[in-house]
Amino acid sequence: MPRSTSPFAGRRIRAAVIGTGAIGRGPRLPALARLAEEGETEIVAAVDIGADAVGTFCDRAGIRQACTDLVTVCTPPTLHRAQTVAALRAGAWVWREKPPGPSLADFDAIEAEEGADGGPYAAIVFQHRLGSGSRHVRRLFAGRAMGRSLVAHCRTTWYRDSAHYAVPRRGRRHTEGGGPAMGHAIHRTDLLLDLLGPWSEVRVMAGRLVHDVETEGVSTALVRFANGTSATVVNSVLSPGEVSRIRIDCERATVELTHLYGHADDHWRITPAPDVPAGQAALWRDFGPDVPSSRLAQPRELIAYMRAGERPRSSGADGRAGLELITALFKSAFTGATVRAGEIGPGDPYCTALHGDAPGWAPHAAQEVPA
What we know:
Layout: E1 13-18, H1 22-37, E2 41-47, H2 51-61, E3 70-73, H3 80-89, E4 93-96, H4 104-111, E5 122-124, H5 132-142, E6 149-159, H6 173-176, H7 180-183, H8 186-196, E7 199-207, E8 218-225, E9 230-236, E10 238-250, E11 253-259, E12 268-272, H9 278-284, H10 297-308, H11 316-335, E13 339-340, H12 349-352
Parallel strand pairs: 1-2, 1-3, 3-4, 4-5, 6-9
Antiparallel strand pairs: 6-10, 7-8, 7-13, 8-9, 10-11, 11-12
Helix pairs in contact: 3-4, 5-8, 8-11
């Protein structure tokens, strides 16, 4: 945890909320309000195109007019670049909703506006890597306590019906960029990378199958990690039996996380190999005090980084890794080729748009994305 000091040390962090819809008034306001009760934050501003929505939000938050240190962006991803850049140029730190933006080009443009030393920085809402379970397993993997990781399975298989896609911005290329791989499964993708480290190559199949939209309904990926781990990653919004799951088989134990939207310690399971001593297995299973993954844990951590004047996790290269893998997923689905880490850069059409302007990316029920 950061230890140095900054201009934010010793006072409340003044926060602004951009977008007071379901995300802003749902998970974001309670988290910031709780931190305000703890003396960490003060919500000082809110912005929305809906006058009634922002008025109600301001009434609930007790907002008064003041200057701002932290801006939380809760708008659709295509608006993130302009809003985040404006906030950074004004000197405010930013905590923006996932997905971080519709393309790597947008992400890189935001990163270029960050401060060189001490901020301001722009972090992403990736709360699933937080909580006692994720922290404990990350430490075990970092120290190779259970040996090398060998095989991994990552599933985000959810269900979204036609009513979900009746909202105009959903399932549309220009507003969401991609389907479950981008908007639903990105939390599991981020957590998998946080546990296993960088990926090296990916090969993918994807399809629409059900809904008459512009984004995929399902994708299945084979991913190789730099440490040699082989993984399957399955993302879907066509699965009535919903589950979020990560399983990683190591040389001496299997680690599993099974949940839906959030997780606590009892969602994790560690199964040791038969020859592992009981005492050793007990240490692996000791997660300490249960701290669930939550939208409160991450802003609390972010504020600590602000006070220290240090780059927060889930920003910069750390925050970009998941978006790069998702971008490679789309490029592989459209081209049928294996895509390697680092190959999608300026001049590559997939750097500026997930679909890469590939033919066939248009509404058509039961049509598969070329693979």
